[in-house]
Design a protein that fits this description.
Rossmann fold, elongated, N-utilizing Substance Protein B Homolog, Chain A, alpha/beta, three-stranded antiparallel sheet, 11 strands
Length: 442
């Protein structure tokens, strides 16, 4: 009986490559270990729903050096950027569709993304993945790859977004935003720096707001001027808006769910007496590292905000809420494959509970800023509308000129929404929702 998963018959032997193929059971080609780690990363994201960055340490534990780990991460990340298009190519060369979680599909994704997006010679791309399917469908993987290479397969210039994401964003934001998102995910974005002292931003730097500088993607961060001195930290321009809307102050402030701490550093640099509340001890370690490097002063409280309470009301609260993180897809393409509707609903429920508690901690006349790095209205507009309906003693405090980076404006309702396509000519920004509300005076 004919195997329906077999690719089309290869051309005559004279037309095939004469390069030697890896022999099953023989020594693995150099670089196979990095591809095996990339396979583990894809499995962690696509099957277990883990964030790519969280899975990195475990998946690359067998690799000996930073370059090998970096290669594994680059292969996995680019595969996730291009997943629908890679799968379309694979499906075009098989008679029966491979299961989404089949190892053969994952191996082909890794081989194809190297050859078609990362500049790896095709013979090296396939040689380093065939050992990943030892004892399995090696002939199928080799045949499908060969068929696609001989057919001059190519990836589209703009990646195709996962269908469920594209449909959801089209319904919420329209066709132009979906197209802008495809352009945004096509390549890693530039890197934004936030300076504790805006006067230290180099005059020749690309700057889109006070205290901001933008450098090229792939820059060696630790080698940039001012790193060792702690003059700045990495923070997307959109992520800097919540603290910009709180502004300068010398009173008490709670930064809830604070890690990794970019907003905490901004607020400490702006003069606030900050207590950063973070439930995860491991994530709090990042806060301490940033505090030590910059020399800024703030307190860290390891606690769950759903059970913890401050000793007294404060002048300002930043709710940097846990969310689906779909707004940071440019740097973290894995979120598009993990953040399904159930995750969005779960996060929205958690945000509502945090907001309800945080409202009680704002002193009369004080400010609460709610922010999420999400492109889902359930975690933004709908959330703050419900909050205002349930808390009549709070009202939107309008944005005034000069508070936002140039090119970003507040919505008519008074909150801020950043979307794919904004500031595109200058390198874009992440998707965020930010609302500033003020409690009525006693």
């Amino acid at each position: 009986m004919t195997d329906p998963t077999r690719p089309p018959a290869p051309p005559p032997a004279a037309a095939r490559s004469t390069r030697p193929r890896p022999v099953p059971g023989g020594p693995e080609p150099l670089g196979t270990a990095s591809r095996r780690a990339a396979l583990r990363l894809l499995d962690a994201v696509l099957r277990r729903g883990e964030p790519l960055e969280s899975a990195l340490a475990h998946a690359t534990r067998a690799l000996s050096g930073g370059p090998d780990r970096g290669l594994a991460h680059a292969i996995a990340a680019e595969t996730l950027r291009r997943l629908p298009d890679l799968d379309a190519l694979i499906d075009s060369a098989t008679r029966l569709r491979l299961a989404d979680d089949a190892k053969a599909r994952s191996a082909l994704r890794i081989a194809l993304v190297q050859a078609l997006a990362l500049g790896t010679p095709p013979h090296a791309a396939i040689a380093t993945v065939l050992p990943l399917v030892d004892g399995g469908p090696r002939k199928l993987v080799h045949g499908v790859f060969g068929t696609l290479m001989r057919g001059n397969a190519a990836l589209p210039t703009l990646p195709t977004l996962p269908a469920t994401v594209a449909e959801r964003w089209h319904a919420n934001w329209g066709k132009d935003v979906v197209e802008a998102a495809a352009r945004a995910i096509a390549a890693p974005p530039p890197v934004d720096l936030t300076y504790a002292d805006p006067a230290k931003v180099a005059p020749q730097a690309v700057s889109l707001a006070p205290g901001h500088a933008r450098v090229a993607a792939g820059s060696d961060i630790a080698a940039l001027p001012g790193y060792d001195a702690g003059d700045w930290w990495v923070q997307d321009l959109a992520a800097s808006i919540p603290a910009r809307l709180i502004g300068r102050g010398d009173g008490t402030l709670l930064d809830l769910c604070a890690a990794p701490g970019g907003k905490t550093l901004q607020l400490a640099a702006a003069g606030w007496q900050v207590t950063a509340v973070e439930m995860s001890e491991s994530r709090a370690a990042r806060l301490r590292q940033n505090r030590d490097r910059t020399g800024l002063s703030f307190d860290i409280e390891i606690a769950d905000v759903l059970t913890w309470s401050p000793a007294a009301p404060v002048q300002a609260v930043l709710v940097d809420a846990p969310c689906s993180a779909t707004g940071i897809f440019r740097r973290h393409p894995d979120v598009l494959h993990r953040a399904h509707g159930g995750i969005v609903a779960e996060m929205a429920d958690l945000q509502a509970r945090i907001l309800k508690r945080a409202a009680d901690w704002v002193a009369p006349g004080g400010t609460l800023v709610y922010a999420t790095c999400s492109l889902e209205p359930e975690e933004g507009e709908a959330q703050i509308e419900r909050f205002l309906a349930e808390h009549p003693d709070f009202a939107i405090r309008a944005v005034i000129p000069g508070e936002l980076p140039g090119g970003i404006v507040a919505e008519p309702e008074g909150w801020v929404r950043t979307l794919p396509g904004m500031l595109e000519a200058a390198g874009g920004c992440d998707g965020f929702f930010i609302a500033r509300v003020q409690r009525a005076s006693a």
